[in-house]
Amino acid sequence: MVKITVTAVGGRRLPLAPGLPVTLEIAGKTTEVATVGDVKAAFAVKYPQFYASRQKLTLKGDKKALKDEATLASAGLTDGTELEIKDLGPQISWKTVFLIEYVGPLIIHPLMYYLPRVFYGGPVQHSLLQRYVFLMVILHFLKREYETLFVHRFSHGTMPFNFVFRNSAHYHILGGLLLAYSVYSPTYSATSPYIQGTVRDDPRFLWAYTAVWLFAELSNLKTHAILRDLRPAGTTKRAIPYGYGFDFVSCPNYTFEILGWTVISLMTGSYSAWFFNIAGALTMINWAFKKHRNYKKEFGKEYPKRKAIFPFIL
Fold this sequence. Notes:
The structure is a single chain. The protein contains 8 helices and 6 strands; from the N terminus they run ββαβββαααβαααα. It has helices at 36-46, 94-114, 116-120, 128-150, 163-183, 203-230, 252-268, 271-299, and strands at 2-8, 22-26, 55-59, 82-87, 91-93, 158-160. Helix 2 runs parallel beside helix 5 (163-183). The model has no long low-confidence stretch (mean pLDDT 92). It folds into 2 domains: 2-89, Phosphatidylinositol 3-kinase Catalytic Subunit, Chain A, domain 1 (Ubiquitin-like (UB roll), Roll), CATH 3.10.20.90; 92-302, no CATH class.
């Protein structure tokens, strides 16, 4: 049996866990076998509202969270050691967050496309460009919902609930309200001088761009499938990805995502489309650099030479 004392970080009072510090007993295990996850489970038994994903356990005086799968011995803990706990707040699953993020544009775009009188004060005769863009946006976010449900395997089960508002703002506001209001407006209608007699009304132009967009979307799906197959279900295992874009960059899924939105930005010339595209690209470039560094740190010399996100460039 192992005994571990848990106290609040900085001696603060935790409403969901009155009476701290508390000593927990993990029966039938030694420090070589018992894990940090076992400590969290024991704490949740005593304080049911303080479920495991809401807990952040650290060594006393340290800010780095201990991994659930780490044994107490590997974390430097002995019988009777004191750990500090922090309340991460109400949690929500990553899968739920993604579903909420992507459903916004799936609601907003059809509303603005099919109800122009409500948003523009009159009818809009949709141009070929608007029809193509509408279909591309809807298919993109349906694909994202499908990937969330059936493709992605998340390394972290939950995130703080309040993050859902921050994360959704990018898709609901930039990719939803601003993008939809711009591209379905009379400026891009069939009778607009911006469209009539221009390349944006030429089916050959639209088909060419759509072909590139379709390549980007299917390639993005392919890279997500490769990443999924590297991680067995129910694990956080990491491995070096190879093939289909991964031989050139660490994050080709981001590369193809940016390419797809660049196609829509070029097709429309909309400032809103470019703003949404650039904002997303900057975020993905930052993520790619972090993942690239983590890959090199974790796998060392085994990790092949490749760029982070743009082949031969970045």
